[in-house]
Amino acid sequence: MALSGIQIHKLLPQTNCKECGFPTCLAFAMKLAAKQVELDKCPYLSEEVRSQLAESAGPPVRLVRLWANGRELKVGNELVLFRHEKTFYNPPGLFIRLWDDQPLEHLRSQVGQIAAYQVEYVGMRLRVDGFALQATGDGSRFAAAVAEILQVAKRPLILIAEDPDVLAQGLKVCQGVRPLVCRATPERWEPFAQLAKEYQTPLAVRADSLSGLADMTEKLKAAGLVDMVLEPATADLRSMLLMQTLIHRMAIKKNFRPLGYPILSFPGQCAPDEGMELIAAAQAIAKYAGFIVLDRFDPAMVYPLLVLRTNLYTDPQKPIQVQPGIYEFNAPNEDAPVMVTTNFSITYFSVANELSSSGLPGWLLVADAEGMSVLTAWAAGKFDAEKIAHTVRSTGIAQKVKHRNVIIPGHVAVLSGELEEQLPDWHIRVGPREAVDLPAYLKAGAWA
Predict the structure, then answer these.
(1) Nearest alpha-carbon partner for 254 in 266, 246, 242, 265
(2) What is the pLDDT of residues 262-301, one digit of tens each?
(3) Which of 34, 303, 325, 401 fits a 20 to 30 Å CA distance from 133?
């Protein structure tokens, strides 16, 4: 049962030492009750109180980690049902299911193709997170397939086997790897729990009802397991949506600990054809899967899912930004024009697309405007003469060009006078207001 802020405050040392970063113990207690701070921030808790508060102060959905060869995937730790309430923190992992009965050469080729796939999206590189390997019955074959995937891809794994002996052979080759183990069921969970404890891996729990899942997690928790993933047994889109929403709502709104774990979803099991698998996967991302396993790899399907996931798990209070710095277009030389803009992703890509498609060489200096567009940043004092001058100096553009002309957006033409004072060695040119007019402006040569 979750404790209120006042109840937590009564258990704290009440020294108001401020070492936790808050002015009073009461303020810290209120943050603990709201799941907005870690319990370890208080250095003076006794072990008895720490144990008492750990359950109440923990996030409603447990954080589960997978890793392999330096790559880590974090899932869970969510605090809200809807992104606009605060934000979503850990995007669901996107996995591709493979089967161990394929020839190793074919498996190697598949894994290499999938691992090499990545797309650029608003300055970010999006890719598939890992692989789910399905055992077909032979332990040595399963182990060989696991080893092959880890050698080629070095991505987190989900290991799926109905026979715990087969699963054990696959786990033996997972040195330095933490996979997700599937799956414990009400009929057979003890050997899977033993394997999860022995290899210190999270364990997926499968049942066809909320009560069945809750009963299983309580049994496994009593057996010493803490990292679990819920796999509701669903066969269609409606039941998948219903089960996953109820699980997440019970965890977030009711703080019902037996269901406070990430969800594992297999969209292909809820879709009658390949086209519907995409819809089911999109639904799983939005409502509220932590691990999503696709039955096939198709860039036409994976790309929109990666973009959807990125958009949903972008903090709505923080605009998408690109990295400030110098960006080169069409192999610019020392005579190419120098332009300045802000690091708001839409602004950057509007300018970048026009420059790239024009074929004209150019240097684009992107200033750190905290992710705001040109006019918004100017109005907020984040894109002024001082910031532009700092960008010109800090990027070292003066060593890359022999001229001293810098083009500023037409919307901030008012800054040209101040900017001449900040950059006395440079000539300030006022460019067009809209990115679409930039190629014609550059071709006219008035900036030189």
Answers:
(1) 246
(2) 999 999 999 888 889 999 999 999 999 999 999 999 999 9
(3) 303
